[in-house]
Amino acid sequence: LRAQKVLVACGAFTNFHHLLPQPLPLILKTEAMIWATVSVETAARLHAMPGVGYNIDDPDIDDIYMAPPLLYPDGTHKIKLGCNTKGELWPRTLAEVQAWFQSGASDADMPAMAAALQTILPDVEFQQITSHRCIVTYTPSGYPTIDRAPGDGHGRLFVATGGNGSGAGGSDALGHTAAGFVFDGRWPDALPRQPFLASNQWGAGKKNPSKAQMRALELQHEDKGAR
Does residue 1 fall inside a structural domain? Predict the structure, then answer.
């Protein structure tokens, strides 16, 4: 297989398998989620429902997001809900990422997530609720990285990664932006370029640091201590 240009868009696996000449400063966090199957009639009724994001006063889960019903390849309509949990992990290696996807404890918080879903949609009857696993990829700027791959001397390798926990809502627009940039370097006039650069680095000094920023600082201290 040959191509003039290649766009690497591999999410949590971006820094593994030597896909890029140089790794990006990404932070990974595991996230549990549930898929709730609804009838065709319910899916049609909730078709115009917007995505939902809110904080919840619960000892086990917080920072909930919920997507409207979507048609899945198996022919069923499912509502997706995810959140932060007490058992979330911060994998750093390929083995840790694989272990989470293969056997992570995503069932542990399913009752709390199912209860939250029923609270949001009290009149909806769910045919089935199943747990699933995800990994959130964070970047230093909080925006996706869409740029030329660092270390590529030929200018033919590009990267798009880092949804920062909110990339799904704008995935179509982000994909269109990345495709245009790869094709001829175009960039939307209304979109600042700097937050999307691969050269952004984690740093201290932000008034309200995110969990990912706090984790980045922890890793910096750990790495210094190991030297």
Answer: no
CB atoms near residue 106 (< 10 Å): 22
Pull the structure tokens for residue 111: 């009752």
Same domain, 31 and 128: yes
pLDDT in tens, 75-84: 999 999 998 8
Q: Which residue range forms the structural domain that includes residue 113?
A: 27-135
Which among 118, 135, 152 is the end of a domain?
135
| Beta strand extents in the chain (DSSP E only) | 6-8, 27-38, 52-54, 61-71, 77-85, 128-138, 145-148, 157-161
The amino acid present at 48, given as its one-letter code, is A
From 135, 158, 190, give the residue that closes a domain. Answer: 135
What confidence tens digit (pLDDT) does each residue in 138-152 have? 999 999 999 999 999
Q: How many CB atoms lie within 10 A of CB 125?
A: 9
Whether the CB-CB separation of 65 and 79 falls below 8 Å is answered with: no
- Measured in residues, the chain has a length of 227
pTM: 0.87
Average pLDDT of the residues in 150-176: 91
DSSP state of 143: S
Residue with tokens 């959140």: 83
Overall number of domains in the chain: 2
